[in-house]
Design brief:
This protein is of the alpha+beta class. The protein has two domains: about 90 residues, Beta Barrel (Elongation Factor Tu (Ef-tu), domain 3), CATH 2.40.30.130; about 140 residues, Threonyl-tRNA Synthetase, Chain A, domain 2 (2-Layer Sandwich), CATH 3.30.980.10. The chain has a six-stranded antiparallel beta barrel. Strands 9-10-15-14 form a four-stranded antiparallel β-sheet, with helices on one face. A three-stranded antiparallel β-sheet has the order 11-12-13. Strand 5 and strand 6 form a beta hairpin. Helix 2 crosses helix 3. The protein is globular, with a radius of gyration of 19 Å. It starts with a strand and ends with a strand.
Length: about 240
């Protein structure tokens, strides 16, 4: 099956696109030749939205996931009496408000990994909030102090961009990988890095804002002890 063209990689701000149906799985997953929908992975949920046929009939997309071979994306869409066939044209439209909040939080979590420069053991992105788990022994982390440091990085309004390196270059620079639980995707021969100019550089396949200033106000809302050497730090847009 032809690989899905990932339009969100070229432009995470694209809210919709016209696409051709390539296949429909028995479970109802609609495979398109191109999409603006981000597929679930790396702690970032799959996008939701709608698929609309040329007739105007629409179906909600409840989640977006990768297919078994990781080269196609399945839009899990369903509605009464709604179905599509390969070759049909549809408009794929994001729930943009939800996606944009995730973009802001995802970039903020990269900044949090700079404020707390410890190995990351886990993480998750929610609707305007998120968390990172750190391999850190000492207690006494202060929410107000961490919030101040985080907001100072946001206020620098640093550009956020990407670059690509080879698998071999990543192997030669293992400190680029901050996450212990999620490894950068390999197999294509190259790895995508997200760069926050002058602040951070790490492998990531997710969607981000163009500048840190777009994050807006963000705060550390909770610090939990999850084990002898594990602290869960939660943040939220405020």
């Amino acid at each position: 099956m032809t690989a899905t063209q990932l339009l969100f990689r070229d432009d995470p701000y694209a809210r919709d696109c016209e696409a051709t149906v390539v296949a429909v799985t028995p479970e109802g997953g609609v495979v398109l030749d191109r999409t603006v929908f981000y597929a679930q992975g790396g702690g970032q949920p799959g996008d939701v939205g709608t698929l609309t046929k040329s007739s105007g009939a629409a179906a909600p997309v409840a989640n977006t996931v990768y297919g078994p071979d990781r080269s196609t994306i399945l839009h899990l869409a369903s509605a009464p009496d709604w179905h599509v066939e390969p070759g049909e044209t549809v408009t794929a439209a994001l729930d943009w408000e939800r996606r944009y909040k995730r973009m802001r939080i995802h970039t903020a979590l990269h900044l949090l990994s700079v404020v707390l420069p410890y190995p990351v053991t886990g993480g998750a992105i929610g609707e305007g909030d998120g968390r990172l788990d750190f391999d850190i022994q000492e207690a006494g982390l202060d929410k107000a102090e961490l919030t101040g440091k985080l907001q100072a990085l946001v206020a620098r309004d640093a550009p956020v961009g990407e670059r690509w390196i080879t698998d071999e270059e990543l192997d030669a620079n293992p400190t680029l990988v901050k996450t212990m639980s999620v490894k950068p995707p390999r197999g294509s021969g190259r790895v995508r890095l997200v760069e926050i100019e002058g602040i951070d550089l790490q492998p990531c396949g997710g969607t981000h804002v163009r500048r840190t200033g777009e994050i807006g106000r963000v705060a550390v809302t909770d610090i939990e002890k999850k084990g002898k050497q594990n602290r869960r730090v939660r943040i939220a847009l405020v």
